[in-house]
Amino acid sequence: MSALPTSIPAPALNAAGYQFPPRSQAVFACAILFLGYTFAFVDRNIVSLLVVPIEHDLGLSDVEMGLLQGTAFALFYSIFGFPIAWAVDRFNRSRIVTAGVGVWSLMTCLAGLSRGFTPFFLARVGVGAGEAAILPSATSLIADYFPPAARGRALGVFASGIYFGSAIALIGGGLILHRLAGQTLTLPLLGALHPWQVVLLAAGALGIPLTLATLFMREPVRMHLRGSAAGATAGKGPGFMSAFRDHPRALAAHFVGFTAMAFAAYGATAWLPTLFIREYGWTPAMVGARLGLVALIAGPLGTVFGGLLADRLEKARRYDGKFLVGALAAVCTALPAVVLGLSSHAGATFAAAVGVIFCTSLVWGVAPGALQEIVHGSVLGRVTAIYTALLNLVALGLAPPTVALLGQSMAGKHGGLGEAMAIVVPSACLVAFIAFITSRSAYRSARRN
Length: 449
Fold this sequence. Notes:
Blueprint: H1 23-49, H2 51-58, H3 62-88, H4 93-112, H5 117-127, H6 129-145, H7 148-159, H8 161-179, E1 185-187, E2 191-193, H9 195-205, H10 207-213, H11 240-246, H12 248-269, H13 272-280, H14 284-315, H15 321-342, H16 346-361, H17 366-372, H18 380-411, H19 417-437, H20 440-448
Antiparallel strand pairs: 1-2
């Protein structure tokens, strides 16, 4: 696990003199939220390793797999994401995390039992409950557990779960596929299962002990209520729409910039295993071990480094620092993305994949931290849900099928993925860079107000 931010003073005080929870409680909560995000991304990303066997057994195309990887998952946010975030702003956030872990784990198991596109699609919609619950909850909880000077590190650790989860999915999934290659596993009540179905059942089962562990996470007092009169409720504070009326340009730039970076990330990583299997003849076990190791090292290093850089800029009074980190990530992602898509050498393609994973990971902890600085705590969960909905509906929902459709239009049903990545990813990075650079003053102004 990444180093948890244990160096913060305990108990720390914010500018108004409010006392944050003890260090031990904050670190424990950060660890649980990190594990929750890790397992969410195990269940979310495991399908990327299973594209070839699922297409073979269920007779699906790349476009249909793109829908299963992204669009089906993202649909949950368009229906239930905002109500969950409304609950985050009003009720016990720790128990919302508990419910989310349980639901996404169950739905991953149901995906593993699917025998066709439609039930698989519906199960993936249910898996969306995971991030719909955990990201708004974690963003709100970390804001109340850690003072501003330590939030970048805490959010960096939390966000590194993206890559630990991806690594577990790739390495663990690859090992299971290798062990069961060419076989079926017969289980009581479930019957004969293909190896990819066993992988999904194993991924869903990881959530059982975590669901129990979340019950021991305490609910901190919300920072905007500390010092208020007894009986105050979590719903008090500025109205929800006031956040958008007061800082329209800063929030628009945040949503566009970080969503575009996510579009770049998902457009590449959703198809990396398939690219190496098809173009270079790697086995699922080879792909899982190599890309899993990259995800395990480069991803967490990037998220923590991005958080540390944001904290350093904060201490240097660069109050647009989080946008600067986003702009840096956009610039540094574009070049390796072109190499990734156009190279015909496995080594160069692999090195470019490392670069893309590291550079896109710089923003995952910074993005929710940037919202914490300009949105009041009473509406933070709901504003985060709007951001998360855009992130998932636009980036995760559209990036994988966009790459598949573009590749298919250039090279046929199962081709053109690399060339499509070389177009889609740098284009998204350009959008992100423009959004961040042109709105730095608006973000600084929003923070002052």
